[in-house]
Amino acid sequence: MGRLDGKVALVTGSDSGIGRGIAVTFAEEGADVVVTWHTDETGAEETRRRVEACGRRAVVTRLEVTDEASVAAAFDAAKPLGGVDILVNNAGLDGDSKPFAETTTEDFDAMIKTDLYGPFFCAREFVRRRAQGGKILNITSVHEATPAPEYTAYNAAKGGLLAWTRGLALELADKGMTVNAIAPGLTRTPPTRERIESEEGQKAIRENIPLRRPAEPREIGRLAVYLASDDGDYVTGQSFVIDGGLEANWGQGA
Fold this sequence. Notes:
The protein is α/β, with parallel strands linked by helices. Helix content is 44%, strand content 14%. The chain starts with 7 loop residues before the first strand and ends in a 5-residue tail after the last helix.
């Protein structure tokens, strides 16, 4: 018996990285999965293959999280699976390092639209379609509370997502819904692979992460399983940092 037997999860941005790690780990625990992609359909089909290799059903659909009609269509695509019980808001932009004064309005808009409006649109659709119960997980970042210089738009989006998670948890408690966040540190994904594997990146990992390595996407998935399962029924309004000790190490030697 899996901890998510009989559940259907919609995982945004599950074509690779953390999203794929969560989707496949959910499938291993018995969930059927709606796999979504924005630009990487091939990656989404690979996620589907891995979900189905676990003996679970998968639906693949393109999703533009900043577009309300696209969000509604993604939830419609879940109907053959029986409707969505678990929503994981994972899709997001990492953004590029840029001095604040050089951050354009378009840069800021794109980040807020994807990383904050996206979860808002998806969660609103989820709540409108469920009378009672359900789990919402928002993938934030260690930068939800500890900002990084030259990432002001990203800091704003992830900090806002944390506050929104907590407020939504209070509002939805009477519906029996839980809302939590997972805040990963450095994780091995396609956008971080080059940095992780470089000599400079390896040095930074040794100096800053007490466990001396990045997270693997399936490790984020295991935490997501706990929060999405009955084991996490009494947990809401919380953010869980999973960073190998990175946050605890910041400020040492000052």
